[in-house]
Amino acid sequence: MATHAATNRNDTLDRIMRDYEAVAARLPDAAVPREARGHAKCELSRLGWPKNSDEAWRYTNLRAFERVPVFQPAVLSRLKGAAVAAGDDAPAAMQLPALLPGFERLLYVDGERRGATATDAAVDGPRWPAEQRLGLLCDMFASDVAALRIRGTAAIEVLFVTSGFAAGAACYPRLQIELEPGSELTLVERHLGAPDAPTLVCANVAIELGRGARLTHYRLQQCGAQTAFSDTLAAQVGADASYNVRQVAIGAACARTSAQVRLSGAAAALSWQAIAVGRAQQVHDTSLKVEHLAAGTRTEEVFRGIADERARIAFSGHIHIASSAPGSDARQSLRGLIEGAGAEIDLRPRLEINTDEVKAQHGATTGALDENLMFYLLARGIERTTARALLKWAFLGDVLRAIDLPDVRRAAEHGAAGQLPDIMAIGALT
Amino acid sequence: MSSAADTAASALLEIRDLHVKVGGQEVLRGISLTVRAGELHAIMGPNGSGKSTLAHVLAGRPGYEIVSGTASFEGRDLFALPPEQRARAGLFLGFQYPVEIPGVNNAYLLKAALNAARRERGLAELDAFEFLSVVRAKIKLMQIDESFLSRGVNEGFSGGEKKRNEILQMLVLEPRLALLDETDSGLDIDALKLVANGINSLRAAERAIVLVTHYQRMLDYVIPDFVHVLARGRIARSGDRTLALELEKRGYDWISEQAA
């Protein structure tokens, strides 16, 4: 193993290990048990830093992650630590979104909780496979955790803000959600902040839904232009439980989502609807693996990506239906819209079926705006730029309309429109 | 009837010896037609005769090669204008197959289209309240539920609803020249009467309508001033509404044979 690890080491991994050794003694066990940190360190060392030659990392802009100067959490960094320790008023100076009516807000600045709201005790996180190995970084370095055990019905917003104090270092948001049987949670997870130097935001999300539980999970990623954003998620969905994800990826220089959802109980259901909008040289790369492990499980996967200018958007959707999952139903609809001459979209649907009696369908299309739709609008006298904007808006419409909470939908729409300036001009926003 | 040679000042549309290719094939082979304000022309013909091509070329759809000939609209060279400018100048194309655009609602499209046309005419744009008062009366005429305004353009509409929506758009935009491409196709008799009512309500001295149709039945409800029969890319015969009745009895073969 030592030989294997040595061959995978490179400068970035060396820096990660050095940074870890420098702060390991000060990292709180309450956020991540010490053994779990040690395991993550060994595992990352064994797996090595990812390479673009690996299929699972082919589209990630790894250089954005390698440019991060310091992997230590900003709150422990020697350079920034003092400022952050005194920086309780930092979030007040930032423009935080208005409170969502009926929601409890948990605020985390640079990965650490602000305010008095207590969360539950952290649990051991998932063991990350190679394609989710950036999750190991968060296991190693996280200094806090939002651990929530839900009984009954709840509505919670978790706001992860990266402040200017974190510029040049790293933040490790960490979210652990457990829904007890029959409980219901509406969760808004939002990542904000725009530090003025290459900064790592490396989030881990672990979710467990008990029998009959229901989680609607809104995810808005609006990090700054110099942020390398990693989002590693593992969800386990029990019998008759449903997990509904609405994800909007807008910000960051490079955003990588590595998600794995296991439908482990009979009739468990996943609805994953996501959009990514990229411009300039942004990269949005999502890898979603769904495992159907029990009978009658269902997946609905919808992705819409728009790549403008020289942006690159990738979505890999792998659905595996095990022999133990007869009667499963899996649908994938992946669509990409290329707007920029230097833009690129790579959609990779994959259905792997190991049992009979399943319903499965998938479709992936990438292209430019539909000329028939364009002509229809032009023939009504609509300006060409307005028509283009309207059609781009319509392209994202399936997913945006699936955001049931008006305040969240408005935030998502305005975020997406901010990436597509001509949309702001047409006044089509709700 | 109108003729290409007769270029009265009131001519809205003047087509001269128009030749058009699609995919290398010549589909229109010398069309000449004059349409004056106040007139309603029906263009009939068998499948593949070039009826829809003519409507779409005039509206500016890409993909057609204009080999030779001219078309002017109120004296302006139509082919020099992009499609959106033709529309804003007052030319309306009613689509045979209206597209669905989920995510763009009908009210937004109608208001944007109407205000674009009003700007072109030097009129003030309508605000939301004024727009609604304009559109409500037209919706009632077309027997469309008001909730449709907040739905996506043609999203989930039946064939008949889509055609009614086309006519509604026409009523709201009040074009100078309406080209209606087989608006009657796929309509049951009730929907056909509704659509015909809509068209008739728009007939006016300052406006012209060109109705492209395969069947005579629409012309029982919308009485044309002129009927032209296209065959093999040319106007093979022109006449008044009795020509349509003759076609109903005899079919198109005899005209196609003559055109050949």
Average residue-wise pLDDT of chain A: 90
Determine the number of helices of chain A (DSSP H or I, runs of at least 4 residues).
11
Show unreliable segments of chain B.
Answer: 1-9
Q: Which consecutive residue ranges of chain A, at least 5 long each, have pLDDT under 50?
A: 1-9, 78-89
Task: Describe the structure in your own words.
The complex is a heterodimer of chains A (430) and B (260). Chain A is α/β, with parallel strands linked by helices and 430 residues long. Helix content of chain A is 24%, strand content 37%. Chain A has 11 helices and 19 strands. In chain A, the strands form 2 sheets. A 10-stranded mixed beta sheet of chain A has the order 2-1-4-7-9-11-13-15-17-19, covered by helices on one side. In chain A, helix 3 runs antiparallel to helix 7 and helix 8 (371-378) packs across helix 9 (384-401). Chain A is globular and about 70 Å long. The model of chain A is unreliable at 1-9 and 78-89 (pLDDT under 50). Chain B has 260 residues and is α/β, with parallel strands linked by helices. Chain B starts with 10 loop residues before the first strand and ends with a helix. Chain B has 8 helices and 12 strands. Helix content of chain B is 35%, strand content 28%. Chain B has helices at residues 51-59, 83-88, 106-120, 128-141, 159-173, 189-202, 241-250, 253-259, and strands at residues 11-22, 25-36, 40-44, 65-73, 76-77, 91-94, 101-105, 152-153, 177-181, 208-212, 226-231, 234-239. In chain B, helix 5 (159-173) runs parallel beside helix 6. In chain B, the strands form 3 sheets. Chain B has a 6-stranded mixed beta sheet, with helices on both faces. Chain B has a 4-stranded antiparallel beta sheet with strand order 2-1-4-5, covered by helices on one side. Chains A and B meet through helix 8 and helix 9 of A and helix 2, strand 7 and helix 3 of B.
